[in-house]
């Protein structure tokens, strides 16, 4: 990989070689793709009867990830999951990925391949095909911009805007694991009090989250959810997005919030609040969705057959109610809406000297 763009701004020979290598290793395409990597644009057949979903996300070294706590393979994996999770939150199926990278001089073609290996590890199980991207050098750290396209049956996409008073609030999986995992990677005190198993569960939940594609698809197939969002910034912040767009309030039940045993053990070892981790921890990439109370029995039945846990954690209230959480003593408290700020704890942001890949 060349560290400088040529004076014409065109790709250098090294860039061509890298792109060709990426195409051979990761860019083989099958169904739906007329032209993948190699032309001015990709060409795909639009799928009949569907709406097209498009999402993009930018991840930046020193802001969204640090090479101290994640490998390039993990970074690629997680960046793909962030986009796949957005498609899941709309109830869709991801189909195509485009990847733009700005690469600092110290990165080798091998390290970029590790990044793509991670990306494609996240994509392949869902049949998502790499069909293009862009490559640049970077003077200030690694930048990775991912675009994912997907499909959803026409008119069936789940939005943040449809929650109604009385709807039940559900969440998939467990909450707070990713933040606990990040704090472990940051070597907080008390980690030795946790079992190796709990530690590796939490750190892998941070490094290798799961996009809840299947749950999203079940919800659209059965027309069950009135609103949905993925938990990328933390439960309280993401629930507040549903409430704002649906013009409603919400009541959460603290005792119902799903915490893994590892996360509980972590909170106990830290003398921290598991509830706080669950409410404010970001990057869990679980799905938060609302369903009419009349559909509860069906939802519970479908949830038992899904590939992850579905838990009812609260109910939609009128907008004037605001956002509140009922604590274990039955007392209703105002829910502080704090979105998780990436790597705020102990992280010096741009002042940190980047590690070598
Ligand atoms: P252009 O000058 O039209 O942007 P490029 O030389 O940047 O062309 O790209 C050539 C082909 O390689 C295009 O199909 C593009 O989508 C693909 N491509 C370029 N960089 C990447 C990358 N980092 N990952 C995947 N595909 C890429
Ligand atoms: Mg280009």
Q: Main traits of this protein?
A:
Phosphoribosyl-aminoimidazole Synthetase, Chain A, domain 2, 10 helices, globular, disordered N terminus, single chain, 13 strands, binds adenosine-5'-diphosphate, alpha+beta, 357 residues, 4-stranded mixed beta sheet
Named once each, the bound ligands are: adenosine-5'-diphosphate, magnesium ion
Secondary-structure-based class equals alpha+beta
> Tell me, what is the CATH class of the largest domain?
Alpha Beta
Tally the helices: what do you get?
Answer: 10
Number of domains: 2
CATH superfamily of the largest domain: PurM-like C-terminal domain
> Describe the biggest sheet?
7 strands, mixed
Q: Any low-confidence stretches, pLDDT <50, length ≥5? A: 1-10, 342-357
What's the end-to-end separation, in Å?
14 Å
Strand content: 15-25%
Computed CA radius of gyration, to the nearest angstrom: 21 Å
Q: What is the chain-wise order of helices and strands?
A: HEEEHEHEEEHHHEHEHHEHEEE
Known CATH architecture of the largest domain: Alpha-Beta Complex
State the CATH topology of the largest domain: Phosphoribosyl-aminoimidazole Synthetase, Chain A, domain 2
Mean pLDDT: 90
